[in-house]
Amino acid sequence: MHTLYPFKFAPVFKEKIWGGSKIRNVLGLDTGKLPNCGEAWLMSGVEGSPTLVVNGYLSGNELNELVEVFMGDLVGDKVYERFGDQFPILVKVLDSNDWLSIQVHPDDELAADRGIGFGKTEMWYVMQADENASLISGFNREISREQYVEQFNQGKLRDLLNVEKVAKGDVFYMPAGRVHALGPGCLIAEIQQTSDITYRIYDWDRKDEKGNSRKLHTEEALDAIDFNIPDSYKTNYESKSNLPIEIVNSPYFTTRYLQLDKAVLKDYSNLDSFVILMCVEGAFSLKWDHNLIEVKQAEVLLVPAMIDQVELHPQGRAVILEVYIE
């Protein structure tokens, strides 16, 4: 009987009106003939955009097919009970050459009410940023729903939005309900719930090559927006070499930052979950059971729940996002 092993996937690339060329030129991924590749979906169980395994005897299988066959052995028993045959996390790289639309995602409750699957909570890790790059996260003051509607109708939405400067290594947690937009010059690793539901609030009066505006979801967005102001929009963390630092802990995923300059042994035996290892800088090898697999920047490895121990060997220095569900 074949046993499970760590999986690598072929990315799915997405052309976007706001996309650029960094996914090809900075990360070295072959985006094909897409002139404005805005997203590389590195690991996806989203219907219509599945990623396929590229290593080992299960090569060619879709991510959700693996979940269907191996269930708890792959994702963990509790995770399987909760999410069934759909893999619960989507991992992407985003390259914004222009502003993304100002948008918001529904939470699980609203998504269920509307019959559109799960909500969408996400986090961004900045892999590279041009000078003066920025993003929008939340509001810059306390406002009510009524005040929001009034400002929106007067075309003054932008006056309400909180703008944050962006630098390499920054982390922004974007819970469902937070209004947000990525600005030009950002190369971002995104970890999110498996969901492709976005409510577009404002699109900078943009037109496509045929002169059409993209659809807005003004009404749908209103019920999704969270008007609360957090203490800080940016996640502050201290990076220590060779020790995992928790940067996000949510019901949907936990993400730890791991900066390595020497080999470390990882013991996942107490975890009833898969582990995703996303290389955001440098490269590393993963060793398990006398096997070795190499992982470069912008590559993702899925370690099945049934694998208890692995060794990580950085090639010089590596920065890894370690993601699982508690």
Structure, described:
By secondary structure, this protein is mainly β. It has two domains: 9-235, Jelly Rolls; 245-324, Jelly Rolls (Sandwich). Helix content is 14%, strand content 39%. It has six helices and 21 strands. The protein has helices spanning 22-25, 63-75, 77-83, 108-113, 145-153, 218-224; strands at 9-10, 12-20, 37-43, 52-53, 89-96, 102-104, 122-129, 134-139, 161-165, 171-174, 180-182, 186-193, 199-202, 234-235, 245-249, 254-260, 264-267, 275-288, 291-296, 300-303, 309-324. The strands form five sheets. The protein has a seven-stranded antiparallel sheet with strand order 2-3-5-12-7-10-14. Helix 2 crosses helix 3 (77-83). The chain starts with 8 loop residues before the first strand and ends with a strand. 42% of the residues are buried.
Keyword list:
Jelly Rolls; seven-stranded antiparallel beta sheet; 21 strands; about 325 residues; 6 helices; 2 domains; mainly beta
List the helices and strands and how they pair.
Blueprint: E1 9-10, E2 12-20, H1 22-25, E3 37-43, E4 52-53, H2 63-75, H3 77-83, E5 89-96, E6 102-104, H4 108-113, E7 122-129, E8 134-139, H5 145-153, E9 161-165, E10 171-174, E11 180-182, E12 186-193, E13 199-202, H6 218-224, E14 234-235, E15 245-249, E16 254-260, E17 264-267, E18 275-288, E19 291-296, E20 300-303, E21 309-324
Antiparallel strand pairs: 1-4, 2-3, 3-5, 5-12, 6-13, 7-10, 7-12, 8-9, 8-11, 10-14, 15-16, 16-21, 17-21, 18-19, 18-20, 18-21
